Structures are given as C-alpha cells and as structure tokens.
Amino acid sequence: MRALFLYKISENNKIRDSHHYETPNRITLEDESTAHADDTINTGSYAGRILIVDDDPDITLSFSIGLEDGGFEVYTYNDPSDALLNFKPSFYDLLLIDINMPKMNGFELCTKILEIDLNVKICFITAGDINIDGLREVYPALSTGCFINKPISISNLVKRLNEEIE
Predict the structure, then answer these.
(1) Could you tell me the residue ranges of all domains in the chain?
(2) Is the predicted pLDDT of residue 141 greater than 70, yes or no?
(3) What is the Cα–Cα distance from 74 to 95, expressed in whole angstroms?
(4) pLDDT at 127
(5) pTM of the model
(6) What CATH number has the domain spanning 46-165?
C-alpha cells in the first residue's frame, strides 16, 4: 500500500526527495536538515537519474511522482537558468526538457548543456506541433535528441525513458 506525502519545493525549484509515493523498496531519511540527493536508497530496481526542466510546476510534480514510482531518481527545475547553473556533468542518465519556456527555450538550454556534457541523453517534451527535421537544421546539437508530445500517460513516459536510457 502506498502513502502520498506532500511535496516541498526548495529555493531552486528542485523537488526534494522527502516528498514522494512511499514504496516498500525505498528508504528515506527523515531529517530534512541533512537531506540531499543521495538520501533515498532504492533497494529495488534502479531505472536511472532524470533531470526534468519545465516551467510548469504541475508538470514537474506529476512527472516526478510518476517517474519516481517507476524507479527513477528525479531532479526538477522550473527555471532553465537554474537548471543550467546547477547542472552536474556525467550525473544524469537523461534530461527531459520542455521546449517552450520563458527566458531560455529548451533548445538553447540543450545547446548550453551539451557544451558542458557532450554525452548526456536528452528528450524534449512539448504540447505543440513541431517540425523535427527543420529544428535539427537550425539546432544541429539536437541530432540525437528524442521528442515526446504532451499530454502523455505516466506509463508511456516511463516506458519511453527506459527505452532511451538503454
């Protein structure tokens, strides 16, 4: 049986690990003063580390809950500038980046992140129609990125991200 706990969003808009669906294979430290990314020990299957960047907090929250339930370790930002500032090279297995965001769009963020870490896998999410081939001509760095349309069910998102990570 799962218990739903409320999420707290830290100053940098990263959803803290202390807010998740509690599952039998997950152990979480209770002391928030010492909480950090490694506080959750997943004793079951580990799917990978995902960084989500989307300006809509509802999207980051729902994706985070669903992906954590699917075995992922999830980090979120609602501001692309904060995501870039706090980006850790060689840490994430995949980035899930919204295309349409204020200040910096997802393609600009991708280009800057690839200057830091050329090996990171990136998937773009969007609610709009896009010309993928046209975008890849304008942004050559997108040649390996995948595109996911919103809305998407959590089960399909988990399946798609697992396929991309493998």
Answers:
(1) 46-165
(2) no
(3) 10
(4) 86
(5) 0.70
(6) 3.40.50.2300
